[in-house]
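lol ok so funny story. i was supposed to be doing the assay writeup but got distracted and ended up predicting the structure for this chain instead. priorities right. anyway since i did it might as well share w the group, maybe its usefull for someone
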Amino acid sequence: MPIVCHEKVKCLPIIFLIAFSLSYANLKSQQPVNSVAVECIESNSFPFAANGDPKNFNFLKSSIGNKRIVILSEADYGDGTSYQVMSQMMQFMIDSLGFKVVAFDNSNVDINYFQNKISQTDSLSNFDTYFGPTILNRNYVFNIIPFLQTRIKEKKLELVGLDFQMRLDSAVNGLLKETCNFLQCDNSIIDRTFISLLNNLQHFGYKAFLIDSYARILSEKIDLLITALNKKESKNLKEVQPIIRQWTNMKYLVTWLNRRFNFANEGEDVKVTASYLAARDSTMAENLVWILNFLYPKEKIIINVSAYHASRYCYKIEEFNECCKPVDVKTFGELMAGTQFKDDIYSIVFVSSGGFRGIERNEIKKLPAPKRNSIEYAFSKTKFDYAFLDFKKNKCDWLNHGIFMAPFFDRYFLANWADIFSGIVYIREMKPNYAFR
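and the output, tada:
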């Protein structure tokens, strides 16, 4: 309701009070974290050692409880220590909490190929895993491939992909063979008529796109395969549906690559990046809902996606829409918050107060210095090198009034982070991926 004043003198106290309250709120958010806050974090956090002992993560039992979906999210793909801790947490949750599925923000075509590969052989080359999830890359000592191999062969675990962004041409060939086995056709015929995606890309890598004519041919051929598979569906629903789902994602990839040239300036504009990520986020949410309803209707699932993808209710992060994401673009986390599974999700983000991140030697960069009014700064004043804090199950009420944190894009944002993530893992000194080679 607007304030109407007929006498200027009477308006001044009201205007002054409003201005003072706004200034005070802004000033309060900029105050450095005090000793009381540090003590509160110390008494409500769970410190742990990252030495590979699964017992270190027993504290997760009370926080995760009966949640069916746990999302583990790194701030950056170059955060090596985050992956080291994450791999140990995954092992604990699989062996001690009954999780049977691990999903990644990679193509389900790639992950299916990768799973078949590691379940059929004990020897994997670095190239076999180079294009897969970072946490499974054999180039790094934090990879958990030996553990996964054992559990997969014991039929205690399965891997799935949520994305459509296929990286391995050999994975497409593997999908072709799997399709032919099901359709009982000659795979050499399909190989001759099906055009390899990678051979027709104008550029390889993040700038890759497909021209209209190639996209049209590929889409038509994928439609033919899906039609043929649907005719067989009534005979073996459980076997054919995952194959159809992979081809559906292949079609999403073709459509996306056909539009890809619209994102040529993605490196210079964060909002443009968010716009093209929107296609991936919507596909990952669609695939996860399908997986939970059809493929694994009872199993518990661990998901590894970056913190940006996992974030919920981004409009509650101050200045986030202005800098980083159009208002109408929804992240994977936001989309899942609108599904029937919203109450089944527990999300954990990994943050650090210092160190370096990077994948290659020439890409190493120093983490931004923690703001004095950030949760990273508060943790840096504790005695913990590694710690976990549950945003919902702590007695630090001041956390619910907003604090700065840097879970993505190398910058600090102000928010009540309990609205965005369920909990955080703090790492004092981040080592880049390169350090783990």
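Residues 1-12, 15-29 have pLDDT under 50 and may be disordered. The CA atoms of residues 201 and 210 lie 6 Å apart.
back to the writeup now i swear
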